[in-house]
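Sample A.
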Amino acid sequence: MIKVLTITGNKPNELNITGEKDKRIEYIKKAIRKKLISFIDDGLEWVVVTGQLGIELWTCEVICELKEKYPIKLGIFPPFLEYSSRWPDIYQEKLEQMIMEADFSQPLYNQPYQGPYQFINKDNWLIEKSDACLILGDEDFPGSVKFFLDKAKKAVELYHYQIFWITPYDLEDIVNEEQDLQSFE
């Protein structure tokens, strides 16, 4: 049974998403919501993320909506202090809002960025603290999620860790379902 899940995926620029008004974000959120509800129905209690731009931040928004109807908790663990300091203001504010709505939040390192080891250890920590991961991306072209994926695959071999995916095909299905619904209205 999966009690704790971590979710990650490609960054907005890897998905060719340049702003929060991009319509594809809603489809991504619907795909995340759909997967999360099935995990919650099977006993999921916590989702832990770092709050990274893109998939993780959108996941936080979805969980905050789901918390109104479902017993799900959100933990946000930025890899270091001032994690979002170089982000555009809108995203910094969004992360701060999500941290305030989270059930628990704490930086993994209680200091500003010191080096790449903080990102490496972040991945290890997320895998160690979760039973499985959900990755939004393409396993054949993983982009920046490759580093996390490599560690997750090792965890699968070592201690029955599980990797779940939201693939481009899953997103295409969501888009088609939405278009079908709209054609009936």
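Sample B, a different protein:
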Amino acid sequence: MKALIQRVSQASVSVAGEQISAIGPGMLVLLAVEATDTPASLSKLVHKVAHYRLFGDSNSKMNLNVQQIAGAVLVVSQFTLAADTQNGLRPSFTPAADPAMAEQYYLQFNQQLAGLGIMVQRGRFGADMQVSLTNDGPVTFLLTS
């Protein structure tokens, strides 16, 4: 699994011109599920996302996680992050999980994050979404499990 995480002051998702979710300060997570992922890799990535320290403390050091700032997380499925881009000029999506597995893992990822007491909003799996955000910093990290 891959999660591209961005520290945001706000983020939202719209589908067909209608806003379906939004958060204030927190984290936008673009999530890719790969065919080789397992329940263990899912749990490992949930832990990393929940505890990753990308928010500033009183000394402006990145020492706080999303829970410690009482922030929210907006999770958007993005299978294109699973692409193999090593060869040629067109991505190969062979590493990506099939849609049924990807949706199941996406939903479980959201449930596990929420189970940690984090306020979770989400996109719509498989939809053509418009994602709006204000990247705070900018701060962006690619996490893998």
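Observation for Sample B: The first helix runs from residue 39 to 51.
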